[in-house]
Here is the input.
Amino acid sequence: MLAEVDAMSDEERFEILLCPEIGDGVHTHVKKLIDNHPEGLTLVERPVPHIESAIELLREGHGDLVAASGRWWYENREKDLNASIVLPRREPTRVLVCDDKPEYVPKGAIIIADCEIVRRQMIRLRKDIKVMLPNEFGEAPEELFERTMWLEDLRLNNTIDGYIIPRALHAALPFKTRRHTLGMQRDNIERFRFIPVPLEGFTVLISRQDFPITDITEVIDEGAALSLRLEMMLLDNINIAMHDKVAMMIEQRKVGTILREARRTGDDLANRGIVSDKDEIKGGKIRLDLALETLNRDGTVTAGVEKIFHPAESHSASLKVLNNWNQLLKIMREKPTEEARGRMKELMDIYIDDMVSKGRLSDERIHSPMMEDEDSD
Here is the structure.
């Protein structure tokens, strides 16, 4: 155990095994933590070439903590290790590197998205442009920075009009480019929102099971830790084949902020039981906001659910949201049955005619499922 008390300063000292920046924002995030550590705590960086060697050194006792992304931890969890510390969540949104905002990209433009769910979200916003994945466009380099340089060269040569990458990767690029945030757009409800990719923006510090967590609790962000735990739980209960086709965001938010947004949209949260006490607003009480969605391949149909709930109900409420979402997907995959008679058939006919007239539904899809099985493949 390298964690020790500095005899000269009486400060707790911990050694963090830290890899070079790979575009996930972890290196930059942890360097800021080390440079601005809480009083009475000394954090020391020990550079390592890659995370695999860092984990090996940790197991051998040659370090106290290993810095990793929430995504890496989710995909590489081991019973003998813990994600003991979760740092404050970084902005999890993606950015469009392009001369124009998403709404003003020229018709027929070519945009390269870095993952399937973002590709579908972008098509939902702009059905008149071509959105592709890197490997669909050409022989894209595997390494993240090399791939981004390749995309930037394509953009500068006008071969493509833009590309979408994580915000953390954009911040780590050796060159500056114009970028446009693809975010939740809570301050501008008229713009399309992009729910982030699951587990984006999390930085964790991994330790052995016997790590003295009580000595370093000052740097733990409890809200981020809870959000990470819930997003991991939901992903564990979603078919792995759908993981790259799911957008998810769980975050703690103040009641007052939620209410102000609700007023702008005309949503009466008090009557829905979300806020029941004015003291909760004055006291800065919080709620958990969960948003989950998937889209079909051509971006024309969205299956999404959202819920605001008390942190004490986090586990049960999250599972209930997931159950509702699964039920929604099941219904959307069923072939519609035609009502034989009655008021319901009349209302459905009026609704369908309206959808067709506005171009939101084609005649050939009236009696077809809203979601196809291959949308999840």
